[in-house]
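Risk register update: the risk of archive-format incompatibility is retired. Evidence:
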Amino acid sequence: MKKTIFIIIFCLFNFVESKPPKFDQELKNSVENLSRSKKNVARDKFRNPFETLNFFEIKKNKKVLEISPGNGYYSEIISHYMKNTNNYYVTEYKFPPVDAVKKGQKKFREYFSENVNNFGKINTLLFLENNILEKNQKNFDLVLTFRNTHNWLGSNTAKNVYKSIYDSMKKGGILGIVQHRANEDMEKNFKNGYVKESFLIDFIEKIGFKFVGKSNINANLKDTKDYQRGVWTLPPRLVMGEKDKKKYLEIGESDRMTLKFVK
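Archived output:
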């Protein structure tokens, strides 16, 4: 009898977890915002921003942190969606590791400052030494990171990053991760940009998070993951230049896992 009750409760819990979020028209409008960069819009067919952010349960009343936003692909969408809430933050390095990062941060700040009327205000939270977040902001409801984890694993700072994220979140907050996905039988893990899903789930759970779901929204079965130059062979980087460019464009962007955790 007790076993039967447990099975029923377990099934009901999984049903609640797998139920898709309600359609969010404001989020859809932010994805379709005409002020977005055309280069970024061209990536939508690979990155599925509406479905991805919906899966991560983004809401305007949540305090949201995007880690290492890069050139602002997701920042254009999220800042527009969170406009007038003052609830959207991105990270920046206080001590940029290389000049390219320093220039990228400057370009990001200038772009969003010049376009604040289109996208809205973005707050900043700093990474200090060894990729540890400053502690002046707490109680984030949602923390997001897109295609960054392999870099932190490669620099041996991933534990610092995710422990800092954990400490900055409120209990019940969601951590959403999109990451290039290695095949489970691949010998290398994260050296070529791809990370094994089982490894990453275990790694994040050891920080203290609970894994609650995944989606194949950003899967790409065309990605063979066997390139000499790693994931950067594929668009948008295309590090091989013109060599086999058509082939890599036809493959598209990498196969990606989309994982959701809760504190």
